[in-house]
UniProtKB/TrEMBL annotation:
Domain Acyl-CoA dehydrogenase/oxidase N-terminal stretches: 26-101
Organism superkingdom: Bacteria
CDD domains tied to this protein: ACAD
Pfam families: Acyl-CoA_dh_1, Acyl-CoA_dh_M, Acyl-CoA_dh_N
Protein known as: Acyl-CoA dehydrogenase family protein
Organism classification: Bacteria, Bacillati, Bacillota, Bacilli, Bacillales
Occurrences of domain Acyl-CoA oxidase/dehydrogenase middle (ranges): 132-222
Enzyme class: oxidoreductase
Species the sequence originates in: Paenibacillus chartarius
Family of the protein in this entry: Belongs to the acyl-CoA dehydrogenase family.
Length: 392
């Protein structure tokens, strides 16, 4: 008998189902610690020990390095499920996972540099993230030039500067840092190990995503060898159109899914004295549950259809930037609306810190600050519509 057709966003094969089971098990463990880390603003090192010990951090690697060559669709499946347990951990590890997927699919780095990174991830579960945002220059997605400088020396390079929003910094083993090369108009990327002298200033104190460890990192005359400068092909680097960044909306979809599941369970069990049955029997509650489900399914379809198209047509990836941006826009904004509806279903109790909804409510709004930004996506859509519109 043929397997039933599943809509986008669900496992389609046994391999995908196994990956989902792995992510579900990790999410259940993370959920036990999520509230405490959120309340205290602490970094969940235990979660990353589990991500390493289960081999999760190696999944995007090429098979010759012990990886599973995770597809983009598969990456979104596992990231969305991790976020149901702890959005902060899912978002932070998503940067590592997505970067490895990008590097594997584009092969933009010099082979020997990619090989060295893959071996570090394979052998000791090394974690990587890219750190580009700075206090003065703002988000790199807006075209800001880094104030961090790289000065050539006889032995290599010396880097000086500060990076903000440095997610995953407490657990990262490698810091991919953008810096302006002194005496030129060029910007270089440098792969710097943590033990090179990078300092972490614990500045991260926000209302949402409190356990991502997105502190400031400070480079004060950090000396690195010549080969720390990444040799990459900029054209190859652009081939994926940023498809790997879909790990971001997948995270917020997972938070919204967790909120919806909590609200539905609450509605089925909560029986006020004034009612003959649970509030799930009330029409206005069912209407809100229906709205949540409609928004979740629409977002899931948009997001995973984009990922499947990216996987299936590598030759067309470079032209998918607008579609990928639209997937992020629809998913993130739908996730915010779903969490709001969940709060309305639960009522005043949703504001209690003894329930997870108020954390979901704070965490999900962080998606508006992750790239690509809403205004940039809408501008791209408008420009495409104007170009396609027939002249009157």
């Amino acid at each position: 008998m043929n397997e039933p057709i599943r809509f986008p966003g669900y496992p389609r094969t046994e391999r995908e189902a196994q990956l989902c089971r792995l992510a579900d098990g990790l999410a259940a463990s993370f959920a036990q610690r999520a509230a405490e880390h959120d309340r205290n603003g602490t970094f969940p090192f235990d979660n990353y020990d589990e991500l390493r010990s289960t081999g999760f951090v190696r999944l995007p690697l090429p098979r010759e390095y012990g990886g599973e060559e995770l597809t983009l669709y598969e990456l979104l499946l596992v990231q969305e499920r991790l976020a149901r347990g702890d959005g902060s951990t899912a978002l932070a590890i998503g940067w590592h996972m997505g970067l490895l997927l990008q590097l594997r699919t584009t092969r933009a780095w010099a082979p020997e540099q990619f090989d060295a990174l893959c071996r570090a991830v394979q052998e000791r579960g090394a974690l990587l993230n890219s750190f580009a945002t700075e206090p003065a220059s703002g988000s790199p997605s807006r075209g800001g030039m880094p104030r961090t400088t790289a000065v050539r020396t006889e032995d290599g390079w010396v880097l000086t500067g500060r990076k903000t929003f440095s997610t995953l910094s407490p657990a990262a083993d490698f810091f991919l840092v953008k810096a302006s090369i002194q005496g030129t108009e060029q910007v270089g990327e440098f792969l710097i190990p943590k033990n090179a002298g990078i300092q972490i200033e614990e500045t991260w104190d926000t209302i949402g995503m409190r356990a991502t460890g997105s502190h400031d990192i400070v480079l004060d005359q950090v000396a690195v060898p010549e080969n720390a400068l990444i040799v990459s092909d900029p054209e190859r680097k652009q081939l994926d159109a940023g498809g790997w960044l879909l790990h971001i909306p997948a995270c917020y979809l997972g938070i919204a899914q967790a909120a919806a599941q909590f609200a539905v369970k609450f509605a089925k069990e909560y029986r006020p004295a004034a009612l003959p049955g649970p509030i799930a029997e009330l029409e206005h509650i069912r209407h809100k549950i229906g709205l949540m489900e409609a928004k979740l399914r629409t977002a899931r379809t948009q997001l995973f259809a984009a990922a499947a198209a990216w996987d299936d047509a590598p030759e067309h990836r470079s032209g998918m930037q607008t579609e990928l941006g639209l997937a992020k826009y629809v998913t993130t904004n739908s996730a915010i609306e779903v969490v709001d509806l969940a709060m309305r279903i639960v009522g005043g109790s949703a504001l209690s810190r003894s329930l997870p909804l108020e954390r979901y409510y704070r965490d999900v709004r962080a998606g508006l600050s992750n790239p690509p930004m809403d205004d940039a996506v809408l501008r791209s859509l408008a420009l495409e519509a104007l170009c396609e519109a027939p002249n009157k």
